[in-house]
Amino acid sequence: MKKLFIATFLLLSGSFVFAQNSNCPFKYGANEEDSLKCLEQITNFNMFYKSKSYADAYEAWHYLIANCPCCWDGIYTNAQNMFAGMIKDEKDSLKREHLIDTLIYSYEIRSQYFPDKFSRGYCLGFKAYNMLLYRAKSMDFDQIKEVEDWFIQSVEMEKEKTQPAIWDKYFQLSESITKASKDTSVVIEAYGRATDYLDISINNSLVQYEKQVNTLDSLYELYKNGTIDTNYLIELSKKPATDTARQMKLVLNYRKTLAKIEKAVTPYASCEVLEELYSEKLANNKEDLSAINKMVMTMSKGDCVSSPVFKEALEILHRANPNRNSAYWMGNLSLKSFLNTKDNAEIDKSIDYFIEAVSLSETNEQKADANYMLGLAYYTKGSYSEARSAALAALKHQPNMGKAYILIGDLYANSGGRCSGGDMLPLANAWAAADKYARAAAVDPSCAERANAQRAKLRFPSKEDLFKRGLSTGATYHVGCWIQETTTVR
After folding, report:
1. How many CB atoms lie within 10 A of CB 490?
2. At 249, is the pLDDT very low, low, confident or very high (cuts 50, 70, 90)?
3. What span, in angstroms and rounded, lies between the C-alpha atoms of 52 and 414?
4. Which candidate, 211, 208, 290, places its Cα nearest to that of 249?
């Protein structure tokens, strides 16, 4: 297919000859006259491109690619939009195919002239993207498989740097191949790559986002302390402010892409199918940690964590290369094992794994989630004070985590027996619990129904007990025992 592209391109382009020297000894041309002409065409291209006069921009682009292809990376960065506009407007089918060939071939050469800007994997991905975008209906099965191979090579080269648009088209193609061939392994393998790398993409973008947020916070502290003035604050904040917006946009795009893929794979990736597919692969690939990690990620997202195959793969992965996710899921398995067997060793292992997961977490989201599960494990063990500390640590990293407030509410609600006797009013712990449930509903609407249901189960002190203590509704009351919270009489 590649030869066909090149032959068609050369046939249709006539005098359109690409520079052959990948080292680019002359950035703007071999002499002063060439350089002036190249700079003039850069100006023309930029002007026409910005005004969306793509046909005029193409003339300048044509000259630049043929005579000074390493003059400016913008002639490649902007090519996709320029050709998309031209292809859309072109009515002549032969000219339209020529434009498509030229666009695709532009991805062949850009990594040659700007390897630091356009990696080989990136270019392969967008070659495949445009083939699928413009020629999906005209390709035969062999051509489709070749495009799939481009996608796979691209993803395995780029890994977590793979663009959301590439994931989207790659998965669409995998789903189409699965439907045509009835081979579910194609779409599941694509899903395995997506779950493996997209989680890393999201995590890396969040790390960068939080780093820039911390920079902005530090600058604001300097401003409040009078170390820098308003103008300097504004100037220093420009880059981190831009970076936070860019990284959050990436996070949202990656999450949207992953959610779309997870929804699309559901009909193909039942636990039974995953077990059948991965049991044989695991037996033959116990040394391939990358493949095993894909199995773990795919099965964990496919609600298949009870599978013996998942457990075996996870244990291999955690022994060989412990990371946040492997520690997190090891903790989940041990917690589940304790609930089934009541083996105290399992709950202790669960706590240890979640502590490890916290220490290996990089983003606030990961730290909050791992701390919440640690709190749940402590609660299950009966270590209420430690459970609250873990829940509060989760809230420190994610203040709107409603389920962490619900966990603290549950701890308080179930402390009646622990806090009986002494001066504390019986059932006063329920007031403290009610506060937490109300807080959960207020900060996290997704938890409101559960929080309100938990609150409805509470039993408060009777009017008689309030009268004996001289308490009235609305008064302040300090709940003692291990709780040590100030609340309101109800």
Report:
1. 16
2. very high
3. 66
4. 208
Nearest-angstrom CA–CA distance, 205 and 382: 37
Cα atoms in the Cβ-side hemisphere of radius 13 Å centred on 406: 24
pLDDT for residue 240 is more than 50: yes
Q: How far apart (Å, rounded) are the C-alpha atoms in residues 363 and 368?
A: 9
3-state secondary structure the chain: CHHHHHHHHHHHHCCCCCCCCCCCCCCCCCCHHHHHHHHHHHHHHHHHHHCCCHHHHHHHHHHHHHHCCCCCCHHHHCHHHHHHHHHHHCCCHHHHHHHHHHHHHHHHHHHHHCCCCCCHHHHHHHHHHHHHHHHHHHCCHHHHHHHHHHHHHHHHHHHHHCCHHHHHHHHHHHHHHHHHHCCHHHHHHHHHHHHHHHHHHHHHHHHHHHHHHHHHHHHHHHHHCCCCCHHHHHHHHHHHHHHHHHHHHHHHHHHHHHHHHHHHHCCCCCHHHHHHHHHHHHHHCCCCHHHHHHHHHHHHHCCCCCCHHHHHHHHHHHHHCCCHHHHHHHHHHHHHHHHHHCCHHHHHHHHHHHHHHHHHCCCHHHHHHHHHHHHHHHHHHCCHHHHHHHHHHHHHHCCCCHHHHHHHHHHHHCCCCCCCCCCCCCCHHHHHHHHHHHHHHHHCHHHHHHHHHHHHCCCCCCHHHHHHHCCCCCCEEEECCCCCEEEECC
pLDDT confidence tier of residue 1, bands split at 50, 70 and 90: very low
Picking from 20-29, 99-108, 162-171, which range would have the lowest pLDDT averaged per residue?
Answer: 20-29
Cβ-proximal residues to 135 (8 Å cutoff; 6+ apart), any chain: 100
Q: What does the pLDDT read at residue 417?
A: 87
14-17 — which CB contacts under 8 Å span 24+ positions? 15/66, 16/62, 16/65, 16/66, 17/66
- The residues near 434 (Cβ < 8 Å, ≥ 6 apart) are 409, 455, 458, 460, 487, 490
Identity of the residue numbered 33? E
Which residue type does 340 have? N
Tell me the pLDDT tens digit for each residue of 420-477: 777 789 899 999 999 999 999 999 999 999 999 999 999 999 888 898 888 999 999 9
Six-digit token pair at 394? Answer: 């989760």
- Report the pLDDT averaged over residues 18-37: 70
For the record, the structure tokens of 168 come out as 């989207």
Question: Looking at the predicted structure, is the pLDDT value of residue 19 above 50?
Answer: no
Between CA 255 and CA 365 the distance in angstroms is 14
